[in-house]
Amino acid sequence: MNQSLSSRITLLVVLAVLAASALIGGGSFVLVRQQISDAIDARLSVSEVNAVEKIESRLAAITSSLEGLAANRLAANALVDSMGRDTYLGPFLDGFQRMSGVAADIILLDYKGRPLGKLAKRSFGAVEMPWLAEVVRTGHPAARVERLGGTWRIVLAWPVIYSNTRSPQGVLALALPLAELIRDGLGGAEGISHHLDIAGMHLDPTTGEGLESRIGGRRRPIAAPAPLDSLGIRLDTEVDSALRRQPLERVAIYYGVVVLLVAGVVGVGGGMVGRTITAPLRSLAAEAAEVSIDDASGHFVRPSGDPEEIATLARAFRGMVERLDRESRALVHNAQKVANVGTWRWRIGAQSMEWSENLASILGVPADGPASLDAMGAALRPEDAGRLRDALAGAGAHLQMDAQAVGPPGRHLVVLADRRDDEAGGPVWDGTVMDVTALRRAEIALIEKEAALQAILDNFPFMIWLKDVEGRLVAVNSVYAQACGRDDPAQVVGLTDADVWPPNLAASQVADDRAVLETGQRKMIDEPVSLDGERRWVETFKTPVRDPAGRVLGTAGFARDISARVRDQESLKRMTAELSRSNADLEQFAYAVSHDLRQPLRMVNSYLTLLGRKLGDRLDAESTGYIGFAVDGAKRMDGLITGLLEFSRVGRAERPFEPIDLGVVVDGVLGVLGVAIEEAGARLSVAGGLPVVRGDEMELIRLFQNLIGNAVKYRAPDHPPTIEIGWREAPDEWVVWVKDDGIGIDPKNHERAFQIFQRLVAKDAYEGTGIGLAICRKIAHHHGGGIWIHSQPGQGATLLVAFPKPRA
Amino acid sequence: MLKRLAALAVVLLPLASATASEPVLLAIDAEFGLPNSTSAQAIELGARIAVDQINAAGGVLGRPFALITTDNQSVPARARDNLAELADTKDLVAVLCGRYSPIVLETIDLLHEKKLIMLDPWASADGITDHQHVPSYIFRLSLRDSYAMPTMLRHAVGKGAARVALLVPNTSWGRSNASAAQLAAGPAGVQIVGTEWYNWGDRDFADKYAALRASGAQAVILVANDMEGSAFAKQVAALPAERRLPIISHWGITGGRFVEETGPGLFELDFSVVQTFSFFTAAPGPLAAFAATHETLYGRFDPAAIPAPVGAGHAFDLVHILARAVQRAGTTDRAAVRDALEAVRDHDGLIRRLAQPFTATRHDALEQSDVFMAAYRRDGAIVPIGRAGAAR
């Protein structure tokens, strides 16, 4: 038998080894194949990344170089200097015959895309590329693939900004042969080859010529800088299939050899191990066969060796069982104490009760007193004791009841029991009594707290909720419940977003909650939602909820309807955009005025005058008057347009503000208006020490020219004007005024006086366009100040201008 | 272009039906579209006033004289396209150019191929009239760089600057001036101690100015247009007074808003500019006529308010000379008009009386003696230095 067990162990070991080898081999094959595949993919990726990086860096360097060349003043200079460009631009561009190792051909073209000067004789030849004119028109660089001189080339074109017009007036174009561009960059590792797709053409890496069919394999986009990105350049990569097959074949052969060797070694070793393991069994069997009981002592004996060996072993086992029993009882007792649970058994046949020490403590009866059903009943309220007795006497198999112990402090108990047969086959109730007083009190407190919290939540005018980590709603307020069509918050608790919201909204809620849970960060979201077919804007705040240890328990959030606010903001935005557009239109209009309106007006004026002269005496007085009115009207319209142009120019010069001495400005203006002042016989007084303000000198001259000019112009008909220019200092500003004793302005017209084209007096009495004071107000505002009037009709006018003091 | 012609046709239709004749056309191809440009506008103003006076006196060949404009934005390629189109326009006798010399220099061959007369009221490169085409179709009543430079250098000497340096653009205009300066330096008793070249569009001249000062220059000869000129002047004005050299400028700066762009710092500088014409010293008779027509067409005439006076004055005189040539030729055939331009005599111009503006061998109407130096007044007016009130 021993020999047989050893042989079987050996056989089992060998079989196990072979089975394990088959399993390991199969698994290993899969793993190795995956590893080889991963390794090849890694090499592929490295090779791909290298090729892509080379190409990308080459394209980026070339693009950046051309952009730099186009921005070079020499290029713009050459647009207007044919005699010089061949002497300086040609040699300059020759310095860029190779860019990033690629032969480059650069030419300069005019605004219609026509090559300029001798540069035209470069490899671009006579190919017409009308799209180059588009580069000038749009001001955006562009790229195409063109066949020039029998070679496919990328042509990259960059607009050349001409400083005088501040707009593109030419193009710098660069031609790069595709073969050179891709040849050096694409050398793949062994068994890996790369090709380029450009503008839908698949290119041979050695010739740059298009191939007829695309290869399979991987494709990777090249992140080329603009405008080359428009060509959709991609890298195609192909792997030789032998690269994946050959390593697998080698591994399979090595593995077979190793398995055979291991099986042989394990066979021999298994026999030796089998014999070693069974040796003690064989020895014990031999010893046991010799043990007997001594008749005289009743002890186990053995004819030879130690006669007590077996008996000692038996006693040791018994001692071990007793220790385990004691420890087990102590463990149960402690567990009951900790859990505040006592156990009991009621033997139905014997009408006897047993209970654990802890049950006596829970019932409040002496631990050493007799256990009985009466004693248990006496410890409970009478109605609970009666229910217990009825249950135990009944035919039920299970018992569960709540009870309360008598006397203060009125502890809450839960009694549980099962009816079954004991070891001897007699019917018994095995049960427990658990003291749940603390739990009940906590429950009551919790219910009260929840009610209070719910009351608070329900009083907030926006939706509030609490969710667990699974996204189930733990608590919500009544606003939330109503928003999702429920009457009572309790109807929502336990549901998820998918249960209460439309699918799109639920999906976005889930995604937001996930983001909050994953990042642990708060999130504020403003988003449009569709509820009940109505589109609303909702502001939502979500935050993770943590326990004191910092573990995330769920999310909390609130949301409110901000549709009204968003509507207001959008309305404001629309108005701002309309205002900007309207301003832009006005500026555009001003430019149109300068060229397109004034020129035809001059022609009208010129030809009306010409017509008048041609017809000469043939015109009667009335017709001459008509022509005079028309000429006069055209002149006044020209004056209006000029005024409007000046009005629109205020603040547009973009000149930096400088310290301007208003005394110098006023002196200059008085010099310019000298003739008019003299003609009017005006008496002028200028206060000394006029302040120095930060501003635009030209605009300030215009401001005082208008104010003093008005004071002279709108003088009273019966006496020469007296004009005073004064100033005072306020805490934050200087106020400068021009005061006259002229015809004055009615207070009801003070605001109108600053509106454009508003004339307050008849044009027959005083010439003017109604723009002067509008310009003054625009200038004052441009300087951060203001302008206003103090005046009564017939009592003169004071125009006051405030200039802010510079801040320290 | 076609739109302009169509608009012109509409305006002239009643007149044409009355006179039963088509207008004789004159064009201006200049830098109208440049931001801040005043040169093309000044040329147009002078030409329109002259055209109005000619029409008031009965037009040319009994037909009205009319002006059309095209915008080349100072880009030669655009000018070439505009001129090619104008050359094919019926009854167009000549084209006035603008301020930019490279425009004319780059279209010389085209003008002669198309036999298109170019009247130059401003561009000053010597090569504009010194070229190989015979007969020449280009006539200039304006400055020549080789006239400008002796005057500018003599002005430097007058300031005690015997060593001057040049700041010139890297264009044919810049090279024309650099070469003119070398030729004029000896006779003027001046030494050119340094030359710095810049490209159009440059805005930072600090290094170049430092180099010019380091060369020992006592004054700077500036050849620039308004944009680069104002950038340079502003940078010099920002320096301490003892480091500012007198700046003697060519007149390209007067074709834009140089005073506004430079700002008040301009008046801290010793800055003078070469000119050939000023309304303050114009011939009284033609000036009175000019002012009267200006009053009719544009409102009150204020000599200080015309920002680029040379453009207006030269164009005015050139258009009158052209009208006389057309009248003399008796046809709008450009070859005949070209010949007639060389035969016009005794023209009482705004600039002065010109005994024979052009001859077969001289297509520059002005002379060295017409050139003078001027300075900016605070109101932006350009006033002659030491010649105020001098009638010529």
Describe the structure.
The complex is a heterodimer of chains A (808) and B (392). Chain A has 808 residues and is an alpha+beta fold. Chain A folds into 5 domains: 221 residues, 2-Layer Sandwich (Beta-Lactamase); 96 residues, PAS domain (Beta-Lactamase, 2-Layer Sandwich), CATH 3.30.450.20; 119 residues, PAS domain (Beta-Lactamase, 2-Layer Sandwich), CATH 3.30.450; 68 residues, no CATH class; 155 residues, Histidine kinase-like ATPase, C-terminal domain (Heat Shock Protein 90, 2-Layer Sandwich). In chain A, 48% of the residues lie in helices and 23% in strands. Chain A has 20 helices and 29 strands. The model of chain A has no long low-confidence stretch (mean pLDDT 81). Chain B folds into 2 domains: 232 residues, 3-Layer(aba) Sandwich (Rossmann fold), CATH 3.40.50; 130 residues, Response regulator (Rossmann fold, 3-Layer(aba) Sandwich), CATH 3.40.50.2300. The radius of gyration of chain B is 21 Å and the shape is globular. Chain B is built from 13 helices and 14 strands. With 392 residues, chain B is α/β, with parallel strands linked by helices. Helices cover 41% and strands 17% of the residues of chain B. Chain B starts with a helix and ends in an 8-residue tail after the last strand. In chain B, α2 runs parallel beside α12 and α12 packs across α13. Chains A and B meet through α2, α3, α15 and α16 of A and α1, α2, α3, α4 and α11 of B.
Quick tags:
heterodimer, A: 808 residues, Beta-Lactamase, 5 domains, five-stranded antiparallel beta sheet, 20 helices, B: 392 residues, Rossmann fold, 2 domains, seven-stranded mixed beta sheet, five-stranded parallel beta sheet, 14 strands, 17% strand
